[in-house]
Amino acid sequence: MGRPRIYASNADRQRAYRVRVKARSAAPPPRRPRRSEAVSTLVAWVRSTLIVPSGHPREGKRWSMPQWQRDVLGDALTHHETLLCVARKNGKSALIAVYLLAHLAGPLRRPGWRAGVLSVTRQKAGELLDQCEQIAAASGITGLTFRRAPKRILSDTGMVEIESATDSAGHAAGYDAAVIDELGLLVERQRPLVAGMRSSVSARNGRFIALTIAGPGPFVPEIIDRRGERGLALHVYRTAQDAAVDDETGWRQSNPGLASGIKSLAYMRRESGRVLHSVSDQNYFRAHDLNQAVSPSAEMLATVGQWKRCECPAVDLPPRTGRVCVGLDLGAHASFTSAACYWPDSGRFESYTACPDQPSLAKRAKTDGAGSVYEAAYQAGDLWTLGGEVTPVKPFLERLAGELAGERIAAIGADRFRYHELLRILHELGLVWRPVWRGGGVKAEQHMDQDCRAFQRAVATAALKVAPNVMLTHSVSECKTIRDGQGHVTHLAGVRIRSRIDAVQAAVIAVGQAEGMPKKRKGRHWIV
Prior knowledge:
The chain is of the alpha/beta class and 528 residues long. It folds into 3 domains: 35-236, Rossmann fold (3-Layer(aba) Sandwich); 248-297, no CATH class; 306-527, Nucleotidyltransferase, domain 5 (2-Layer Sandwich), CATH 3.30.420. Helix content is 38%, strand content 18%. The longest helix has 18 residues, at 122-139.
């Protein structure tokens, strides 16, 4: 028995009695289903209620969900953060629609539920709204209001706000679910917008859901790097970066919808055959249909597949025959420094890259969105770490001179970014190298276009022979060309804001010099 209640007056006693009676007679609030119940309830509701809308091959039939889609929806209900990274036309938008409708008018509805959806463009935001409306109409779901300006879906228990990244300045609202469609296409300058969507679920302990292709943006790699973290569910379907565009095994790695008929196998065969004869369209196919982390509109210097054909086991490398051409890229003050060495007589190619040992490679890779590339390159001996926090140019060049001991250097090319520093260090080391300044810019002769063309020809014909090199392959996969109005390459750039392309910059300089070098050099060469 608890202590008896003490009231100031008899009126207070009667008022408290009426409140208790009213509370006992009111219907109890609906019990929120347990997580396992919510998943099975949602799947059962989809099977029994939803009808495929018009315009689809299975129009008018009951909605069927393959196991991989059920797994994604289940994790979206039970995990704080869920990522679905898959090629286009595998039903990502339909999954978003099912998730939203189940909470607005399905078995998961509850009073006050609220969600925010961020689409990459206005058009995508409109398409998602249309898809939700079409599914609801085909399935006979009533009680929903669809608004166009602003884009909203309303029910008597909840609301969904749909905005585009081009219009939205951030989300201050509190959501039970924050959904980003095509997160991989958002760029670094939109990080505040992504952060706003993440924080919008903080007050309600809600769900953050991203459905996207890999794309060139920084956000998807950052999530994947957190694999194994509690509360994070990853569903990543993508083809290996070096796979051929007509490899059907690679298609199925990035398109789980092929097995269930969501996506057409005939389309994949037709499009892959077309892009084999249209190199300019290959990036679009790789980004959209193979879910590879490339920029669709970027003109790549070379594909990873092309570069892989130049690789051979170290024991099979041709000898260091004849003279060597050296390319140097010193990078920024705390970035990477790279050197490329090319023996045109035999085709042998070597690449060396170094960076400061502070911060650690793991932290540097996390900042750059490079995953485990740097640590793998270090383990393979393709990346040197030298002391300090600033790029160690002097010890790097000293070690490079040791690698080339006894070799005849025909030409040395260097990016003019650190002109005076390079000359000073060469003098301090007693190296009588006379660099030829290469690269784009208006202050010196333009070499970039001819160097890039020479490099692309050498790669296309597999004239280069190089041992597998993690840093160099990574740089090739991250490097695109920038052209002027006349179609000339003015400079190289990374496909991401934190891309590291120093190794391929040096490679382009080395190969470009070799192509313009006479077969028999007049005058003296340098011996290291």
